[in-house]
Design brief:
By secondary structure, this protein is mostly beta strands. The protein has a single domain, classed as Methylamine Dehydrogenase, Chain H (7 Propeller). The protein is 2% helix and 43% strand. The strands form 8 sheets. A 5-stranded antiparallel β-sheet has the order 1-16-15-14-13, with no helix packed on it. Strands 2-29-30-31-32 form a 5-stranded mixed β-sheet, with no helix packed on it.
């Protein structure tokens, strides 16, 4: 069922009508950066050495959420140190980008809940705009979308979203763009939805129910329809759908894009030319990728698919006319984005849960983090080249790196690390 609050703010309408997907000059506002693309521009060291590490911040807890950045502040979530697993506390932490010192932290209780052995209670990433940081705190009794002030961590509002039930635990992240906060809450039981909220007040602007079944961990991204209006892409058990970002009305959907019924963990990716990459998988062996065309016209269809060589958890990355697929076991495959033709497939020793990012576009560099805590750097090119493997020395590192202000920010299991100028 679709519900909508009739009177949306004029400012929100105007902002979303002119939505663009270009990167903020200095900001990394959401999981995997601008529109979830993983693309960034910065001048990073040719070879990372210990001298290039500006600081290491020992976080007041552990977790897998990825860092987000606005100006001189970095935000992550952690499960606080010294807490029993039964308490399932979570904290939002603000770290200064200049010196790596913790500026503030705010704790919330979720209660114990079931999760995958490789998951943590602090897996969803924050999202941030010029004034506030937003975090989704999911739990079996209730889940909340919370807004905190950037400077002090003072709670501005909290919206109760009801219970969240999943055998694997939470993983998707909220996003904020052009005056609206969006959240997809997909779970194993009825109650899954995608919704939009006013960032100043937490007022629900619209909400759409989505199919429940296998819990999806995919974080939405934006897509531009043929009419020029922004759409929010929802990927889950019910397929891929585009919702009008202003009204929440469904513009189109494609319910069956793969032959299998695998789980959606990786987020959707929009490529040049408007094609959309969706990835499903199971374990470390089963994977199927579909590339969807003609969604802008409201007539989505599968352009081609890629079977087995893709991943399950790491999100694919499109760099110009190249599409890079990163498998958990370290097999990296480069294909042509227009038709899926394989160009090369090589091993970059893993394993991995982190998703790759690219700095410098085609001909630049791909950065990813192994579960053992190594930074692996590959050439973003049509020929395989391993540029570097740099150890950070901490296992259970699953977070995706961030780039802002000419620096690379890497979150390991218990640390946040600044690398670059």
């Amino acid at each position: 069922m679709h519900t909508r609050i009739p009177l949306l703010r004029t400012a929100v309408h105007a902002a979303l009508a002119t939505l663009t997907f270009s990167a903020h000059a200095q900001e990394w506002t959401r999981f995997r950066g601008p529109n979830g693309s993983g693309l960034a521009n910065a001048k990073l060291p040719e070879q990372i050495t210990e001298k290039d590490i500006n600081w290491r911040c020992k976080l007041p807890g552990t977790g897998h959420s990825s860092p987000v950045v606005w100006g001189d502040r970095i935000f992550v979530t952690v499960t606080p140190d010294g807490r029993a697993d039964s308490e399932a506390k979570r904290a939002v932490v603000c770290v200064g980008a200049k010196d790596g010192k913790i500026q503030w932290q705010r704790e919330y209780a979720t209660g114990i809940y079931r999760k995958h052995a490789d998951n943590s209670f602090a897996s969803p990433s924050c999202t941030v705009d010029a004034e506030r940081v937003y975090v989704w705190i999911a739990g079996p009794d209730k889940s909340q979308l919370i807004a905190l002030t950037q400077a002090e961590g003072k709670q501005v509002w909290a919206v109760d979203l009801g219970p969240f039930v999943s055998q694997h635990g939470a993983g998707a992240s909220p996003i904020v763009e052009k005056g609206t906060v969006f959240l997809q809450s997909s779970q194993d039981e009825p109650g899954s939805f995608i919704a939009a909220f006013d960032p100043a007040t937490g007022k629900q602007l619209w909400k759409n129910e989505i199919k429940s079944g296998q819990h999806s961990i995919a974080t939405p991204c934006f897509f531009k329809g043929a009419d020029g209006n922004a759409q929010v892409l929802s990927l889950g058990d019910g397929g891929l759908a585009g919702f009008d970002a202003r009204s929440g009305s469904k513009a189109w959907d494609i319910a069956k894009f793969t032959a299998s019924s695998y789980r959606c963990v990786a987020s959707p990716v929009v490529m040049e030319g408007g094609m959309i990459v969706v990835q499903t998988g199971q374990g470390q062996a089963a994977s199927e990728i579909a590339v969807i065309r003609d969604a802008a016209a409201g007539k989505p269809a599968k352009a081609y698919d890629i079977v087995r060589i893709g991943g399950y958890v790491p999100v694919p990355i499109a760099v110009g006319d190249l599409l890079f697929l990163w498998k958990e076991n370290g097999i990296v495959t480069c294909t042509r984005s227009s038709d899926g033709e394989q160009i090369w497939s090589e091993r970059a020793e893993g394993p991995y849960y982190s998703s790759p990012i690219c700095v410098g576009g085609k001909g630049g560099r791909l950065y990813n983090i192994t579960r053992g805590g190594d930074i692996v750097v590959l050439a973003a090119a049509d020929k395989f080249k391993l540029i570097q493997r740099f150890p950070l020395g901490e296992k259970n590192s699953y977070a995706t790196p961030a780039v802002s202000g000419g620096r690379l920010y890497v979150r390991t299991y218990s640390q946040l690390i600044s690398i670059g100028k």
